[in-house]
Amino acid sequence: MKTLSSLSIEPNSPGSTPPGRRFAAWILVLLGACLGVARAQVITEFPIPTADSEPEGIAAGPDGNLWFTEQFANQIGRITPAGVITEFPVPTAGSVPESIAAGPDGNLWFAELVAGQIGRITTAGVITEFPIPTANSEPEGIATGPDGNLWFTEAAGNKIARMTTAGVITEFPVPTVNSRPEGITGGPDGNVWFTEQVGNKIGRITTAGVITEFPIPTPASDPWNITTGPDGNLWFSEGNVGKIGRITPAGVITEFPVPGGSGTPDYITTGPDGNLWYNKYHGNKIGRITTAGVITEFPLPVPNSFPYQVAPGPDGALWFPEFGSNVIGRITTGPTTPQLMEVDARTVTGTSSNANSVLEPGETVQVDPFWNNTLVAPQALTGAASNLSGPGGPTYTIDDSSADYGTIPAESIGDCDSATGDCYLMTVSGPRPATHWDASFTEDLSASSITKNWTLHVGETFPDVATSHQFYAFVENLFHNGVTGGCGSGNYCPSNPVTRAQMAVFLLKGKFGASHVSPPATGTVFGDVGAGDFAAAWIEALAGFQITGGCGGGNYCPNSSVTRAQMAVFLLKAKHGSAYVPPSCTGVFADVACPGGFAVDWIEQLAAEGITGGCGGGNYCPGDPNTRGQMAVFLVKTFGLQLYGP
After folding, report:
1. Band (35; pLDDT cuts 50, 70, 90)
2. What are the pLDDT digits (tens) for 142-181?
3. Cα gap 536→519, rounded to integer Å
4. How many CA atoms does the CB half-sphere of 151 hold within 13 Å?
5. How far apart are CA 320 and CA 66, in angstroms?
6. Distance of alpha carbon 398 from alpha carbon 426, whole angstroms
7. What is the rounded distance in angstroms from the CA atom of residue 602 to the CA atom of residue 582?
């Protein structure tokens, strides 16, 4: 049994408070009676410059900031992780912007409830609005679907709508009359899921528009919002009856009552700690529910704050607008959150390895996890590793099961090697049991009573990419993240040039993940790409995102090689969105004229972002074909793919 033990003001000094930050951050200490371990969540609030702005929606943007809507002020706000806020007026007066979501194109998209429009805002603050065909439709929820389109609910229109990033809207009526669809999310099964507030159902719609409805067991539950959980299920709020619901992709529903009756749980999201987080609008709390249904709630410092949408930020915390207090709140998700993990990055006493940052069969390697201390006080941490296992056949051994992280400073990231040099040692040996070979182990942290299950990828996947190959670690990373399965016959073909057709698949899987599936091809976009051609769906999706316009004359040239100059443009448009324009060149590479060289601005920006260092000798080799080995490096660095991560 857990009880709220104490509430105290964050120990900050006046000189350390960032501009615009309310000088009141609260530490909520939760004691586990059976474990005797103190846990703390820190709530910090940042006042919004415009008074009575009535913030509601919030989402993390691709620029490392949070973006939120201001209903009454009719603005979109941007807040940095340090709390600096900038506001951008919505062109249509009285539009009432509500929910907001990061789009697949590097922009933010939001629903305008009263104006009946969907808005798009670039990370530079440029807003474009798109009218919805159905008048007075009252768009509420919005999300990016697994097909690379935007999907939104029309509460009054009783429809689910699909919208391309070019602004083309298709509407699908909900079977139940006057169901009032509200929340919406991309599902783990390749479909889109939504709530029916009045219909008291959870809806599932395929990307082709076929809708299935699942009744909620509790009558008149008022399901408001929905999200995909870390367990492969969908989770939703039941505002009228004070419950959190879970529905499997097959439609089986389980309900979990929140403490204290109702309190109107509303928005819900998956946190970086592997739990679900929700707001309690009338209960004035932020809640956390594990995938097993264990609930903990954290009161907000100011009464009647009316918290709204909850979203994970780039800092490992959860962010939420407070409608009544006119602030943006931030709550840490735990005393520590996992970051990346270095494996075989160095040789130390006890290791037997080549220190190439990949675990290979037969090696004993150092395993060095990184943890973020989210508290405003230092934390002394140690760890214990157990349960190293994997597919049957090989032997899995923990040679050193303890790690010492020393004392990690407040709000800082630390690792065991940098702190004390005392990290885990592990060995995997034996014949390869599968092409994609992953082991795993459990780490228990002492001071914060946190358990993390880490994945250990085992390398030497492709016989034609030796462990000494310059692109070896990047190829393993790309394979582990499901971006490629190789070139056939168990090989990767690192020296082969990348074709424009292959590039389309690489880019979209690198950006959206291994589970991303592009909509079926029509065969009408390019003259030389038929609906049944290799990668046709991916090529047409790439064009839909406006990352490519083809090679000229209405064609795409799918079998042509991609040059290194062309790849610079493709990568940065995929990363930042089709509207992105890089800074002007300054003259970085000797073989790329500035100005005047083809794609020179893009090439130099690729270098500025640390994605490329050129091809050697101060050159970039812009006309050379981009090889599959080079492509692995470009994709891993562009999209921040991790081989060993949280």
Report:
1. very low
2. 999 988 899 999 999 999 999 999 999 999 999 999 999 9
3. 10
4. 26
5. 10
6. 5
7. 6
Per DSSP, the three-state class of 575 is helix
Peptide bond before residue 595 is cis, with ω within 30 degrees of 0? yes
Contact assessment for residue 258 and residue 280, using Cβ atoms and an 8 Å cutoff: yes
Longest dimension (CA), the chain: 71
Task: List the one residue out of 311, 338, 266, 408 whose CA is nearest residue 81.
Answer: 311
Which helix (H) or strand (E) segment is 417 a member of?
Answer: helix 416-419
The packing angle between helices 536-544 and 500-512, to 10°, is 70
Separation CA 301–CA 311 (nearest Å):
19
- What's this model's pTM, rounded to 2 decimal places? 0.69
CA distance 293 to 583: 49
DSSP letter at 125 equals -
CB-based contacts of 174, cutoff 8 Å, min separation 6: 158, 159, 160, 181, 196, 199, 203, 211, 213
Kindly give, in sequence order, each residue whose CB lies less than 8 Å from that of residue 366, ignoring residues fewer than 6 positions away: 342, 343, 344, 345, 346, 347, 348, 351, 417, 423, 424, 425
The C-alpha angle 25, 28, 34, rounded to 5 degrees, equals 165
With b meaning 16 or more CB within 10 Å and e meaning fewer, what string describes 357-370? bbbbbebbbbbbbb
Strands, E assignment, 229-300? 234-238, 243-247, 253-257, 265-270, 276-280, 285-289, 295-299
Looking at this protein, which amino acid is placed at residue 243?
K
